[in-house]
Write a structure and sequence with these properties.
single chain; about 15% strand; Rossmann fold; 6-stranded parallel β-sheet; 3 domains; Lambda_DNA-bd_dom_sf; 434 Repressor (Amino-terminal Domain); transcription cis-regulatory region binding; 6-stranded mixed β-sheet; DNA-binding transcription factor activity; alpha/beta
Length: about 325
């Protein structure tokens, strides 16, 4: 049967379209044998229900949009798992959008979703530009937003973050206590919320131990692996830090690659610690010291907050919820 739809399915099975809808929605007021017959026939003919069309009456899409800078990063993949877990239990689908840290992509996605494509948005922002009116337009359409990890402070919305300042202070202080006098801070985007907060923790730890802040030790990197390799190789050869605090895990990996190629020993010549949710961090050579965020729990919390808004018609406080990261000290920052 070509181009099967719910009407054709109902005709072939000699039952009503509403019965078919109830079978796919998991309703209990339908005979078990009838439900199994509908689902088996639908599977045989590759029929899937159009959940968008079925929800047009109440203007619900039963869909959440998730906007993230990247997907390959372990942190975001774990957070997405947490979001999906909550959404699935609520009978919702998720649509995933990746910005690659490109602000124009973020704006385009939000504008696209501002037309009933999703009931709500969970996002970790790209961090560029100061004009966030495209997000304010969502409120007019009653599309709630929850930020996680990377947030815009000027947008009133629920936020899920971690104790980045405390974690950054502790990581930098750890390097100092192991003997580092020249700690470099690796960052991709200093303008985003976490970039600012983590850098402040780094700077305050230096001040606490009476080490002068040196702007040359703030190494501004990019999203391009080859560019980062060149930046870090130059920094390690010319500035010669004895410690690295990386604000994102991919810069720690880049540091490992460069050190291996130019003969710098971690941790004997250079001690390294990084924000990272990578499960195999203990298996690296040497095992990487990490500040590990509760990524899955952040995803669960963000989704739970969004459903609180959806189920209470927006009558919920838009607060920031701060979860705690854990510091795992391994050989990359303490030696043998």
């Amino acid at each position: 049967m070509d181009n099967i739809n719910i009407k054709k399915l109902a005709k072939e099975l000699n039952i009503s379209t509403s019965t078919i809808s109830r079978a796919f929605n998991g309703n209990t007021d339908i005979n078990k044998d009838t439900k199994e017959r509908i689902l088996a026939y639908a599977k045989q003919h590759n029929y899937l229900p159009n959940h968008y069309a079925s929800n047009l009456r109440d203007k619900k899409s039963n869909t959440l949009a998730v906007i993230v800078p990247e997907i390959a990063n372990d942190f975001f993949s774990q957070a997405i798992n947490g979001i999906e877990e909550v959404a699935r239990k609520k009978g919702f689908y998720i649509l995933l959008y990746r910005t690659d840290d490109v602000f124009e992509k973020e704006v385009s996605f939000v504008n696209y979703l501002n037309n009933g494509k999703a009931d709500g948005i969970i996002m970790s922002v790209s961090g560029e530009a100061n004009d966030h009116n495209y997000l304010r337009q969502l409120e007019k359409k009653h599309v709630p937003v929850v930020f996680f990890d990377r947030v815009y402070e000027d947008i009133e919305a629920a936020k899920v973050t971690t104790n980045d300042y405390d974690s950054s202070f502790a990581a930098t202080e750890h390097l100092i206590k192991t003997g580092c006098k020249k700690v470099a801070y690796l960052v991709v985007n200093k303008s985003i919320s976490i970039g600012k907060v983590r850098m402040q923790g780094y700077m305050d730890a230096l001040a606490r131990h009476k080490i002068a802040f040196d702007d040359n030790l703030v190494i501004d990197c990019s999203n391009d692996e080859k560019v980062n390799y060149k930046i870090l190789k130059k920094a390690l050869q010319e500035i010669r830090p004895d410690g690295i605090f990386s604000s994102v895990e991919r810069l720690a990996f880049a540091t490992y690659y460069v050190c291996n190629d130019i003969g710098i020993s971690i941790p004997n010549d250079l001690k390294v610690i990084s924000f990272s949710s990578l499960r195999v961090a203990p298996l690296l050579s040497p095992p990487l010291s990490t500040i590990t965020q509760p990524a899955y729990e952040m995803g669960v919390k963000a989704a739970t907050l969004l459903f609180d808004v959806l189920e209470n018609n927006g009558n919920t406080p838009k607060k920031e919820h701060v979860l705690k990261s854990k510091l795992f000290i391994r050989k990359s920052s303490i030696g043998e």
